[in-house]
Write a structure and sequence with these properties.
Helix content: 25-40%
Largest sheet: 6 strands, antiparallel
Radius of gyration: 23 Å
Length: about 325
């Protein structure tokens, strides 16, 4: 696979038109394009969404966002929870194979990318619609621009929501426990969808107060977690008092091995998770989590109610 770039020395003599033509040369549909004596076809056969080309930039600035997009039929796009499109259930074997062939590689090539914002752009324009009316093309472009703007704006809003809730929660806990020296951690949670629309797990995609903790941006399985409980059966919130054996058992039982115990700070005294209710058309987060290294004692329920109330601010976010 070859990456064509105007910044690359070996591409200085390659025209943009030839590079684009080669990238569009879908096997068995278009002839390969000859460049510098070699024949090239659509790179999607190897890497459908090559976010790996940005690895160097991510090393220099690990807070950079990676924004990717792909064109999907409207029936496939259901950008409700998580970063990616939700695939429809059902359909013929052929349609499932075709969907996997066209879009599955994109999932694989971006799964390890941090700070990834994926924007599926809905369109009913086909790959071979060369006689598309200009009006239709312009309409689709404008619609996609609005959709992409909404997704990026949503990310900004959710990050701002987390910062504000985290700061206010710190102030309230400080008043209740009458203690200054403690560390609260807060995180927004997104779902991980590996097949169709089924939730495979959860990802702490935005974190406050984690500093250099090993469980920063932690990924968890769906079953047995506080997050899973608050989203499936405990809408008032799920919690674990880590100063008590039953609380520790509830929190750590999700992991059959020692991994979770090894990467999470031992000093934490409690953990809570609350669902983020509201419209699901364009959003990233489904829940918010809190944990802290200060014991709450008789203030446990008061803190829980306070954090639950703060999480409802999501509705007006």
């Amino acid at each position: 696979m070859r990456l064509f770039s105007t910044e690359s020395e070996d591409c200085r003599n390659v025209s943009v038109a030839d590079a684009v033509a080669a990238s569009c040369a879908i096997p068995f549909v278009f002839k390969p394009v000859e460049i510098d004596g070699n024949f090239y076809c659509d790179g999607g056969m190897v890497s459908n969404l090559p976010a790996w080309t940005l690895d160097e930039h991510l090393i220099l600035d690990d807070e950079s966002w990676v924004i990717t997009s792909e064109l999907l039929p409207p029936r496939i796009v259901g950008y409700s929870v998580g970063y990616g499109p939700v695939r429809p259930k059902g359909g013929s074997i052929f349609s499932k194979v075709a969907t996997t062939a066209l879009f599955g590689a994109a999932d694989l090539n971006t799964r390890g990318v941090a700070h990834h914002v994926r924007i599926p752009l809905p369109t009913d324009v086909g790959v071979l619609d060369f006689d598309l009316p200009a009006k239709k093309a312009i309409t689709d472009v404008l619609g996609s621009r609005l959709f992409a703007t909404e997704i990026i704006s949503t990310r900004f809003r959710e990050l701002q929501f987390l910062k504000l809730v985290h700061l206010e929660a710190e102030k309230e806990i400080q008043k209740m426990v009458d203690q200054d020296n403690f560390r609260l951690r807060s995180a927004l949670v997104r779902t991980i969808n590996l097949s169709e629309s089924d939730v495979a797990g959860y990802h702490l995609w935005a974190c406050e107060g984690f500093e250099n903790d090993a469980d920063n941006f932690l990924k968890l399985s769906r079953k047995g977690t506080l997050i899973g409980s608050c989203l499936n059966g405990e809408p008032e919130g799920a919690y674990a008092d880590l100063t008590k054996p039953e609380g520790k058992h509830r929190f750590y039982s999700v992991d059959k091995g020692p991994r979770l115990r090894l990467i999470t700070p031992e000093c934490r005294k409690w953990a809570m998770a609350f669902p983020l209710l509201g419209p699901k058309l364009v959003r990233i987060s489904v829940a918010i989590t809190f944990d802290c290294d200060v014991a709450l004692g008789d203030n446990f329920n008061e803190v829980r109610l306070m954090l639950k109330k703060l999480s409802t601010r999501w509705l007006s976010n």
